[in-house]
Amino acid sequence: MSLLSKIIVPLFVLFVIFYGVRKKVNVYDTFLEGAKEGLIMVFHIAPTIIAMVFAVNIFLDSNFIDEILGFLKPLFDLANIPIDILPMALLRPISGTASLAIMNDIFINFGPDSFIGRLASTLQGCTDTTIYVLALYFGSIKVTKTKYSLPVGLFADLMGIIAAFIITFIFFG
Predict the structure, then answer these.
(1) 52: nearest Cα among 98, 90, 84
(2) Hey, is 134 helix, strand or coil?
(3) Residue environment code for 68-79, b if the CB has 16+ CB neighbours within 10 A, otherwise e
(4) For residue 124, what are the contacts with CB-CB under 8 A and spacing of at least 6?
(5) Is the pLDDT of residue 108 over 90?
(6) Quick one: DSSP state of residue 94?
(7) Residues near 132 by Cβ (< 8 Å), separated by ≥ 6?
(8) Among 16, 38, 87, 143, which one is most buried in terms of CB atoms within 10 A?
């Protein structure tokens, strides 16, 4: 199996080259055109990515999440919901990497088979990085009219968060 996994990509590349030659396509020039288009795309996307990383870092460094957690702790204790999952739920629509880091911390502190570990895994699968998607993908194709996209995306994330809690409580609670 490991030999197959090592040779499948080179075989695919060779197949594409031979197919292009058979169809009388200048494979090398086409490859260079694709590489040039890729660099142009990176040039257009880079400012959006940099702005998104900058905004997420400001949000994380502001300690906004800690303030919200302190305020909401009695409510979550009453509902028997672990408060340690809340930072992940809040950051998941903004940054997939930040939510993965929080999930990793939950796995280290509580274990992946704990209730909160399973809740974090379910939450990771039930939600999306809405703000990241809007900033990166809409920014790369110059979409400026996102009137309904953000509210609908955040509403879908809220429903995903609620579904993650319900599913985890039903199956693992």
Answers:
(1) 98
(2) helix
(3) ebeeeeeeeeee
(4) 88, 92, 99, 100, 103
(5) yes
(6) T
(7) 52, 94, 95, 96
(8) 87
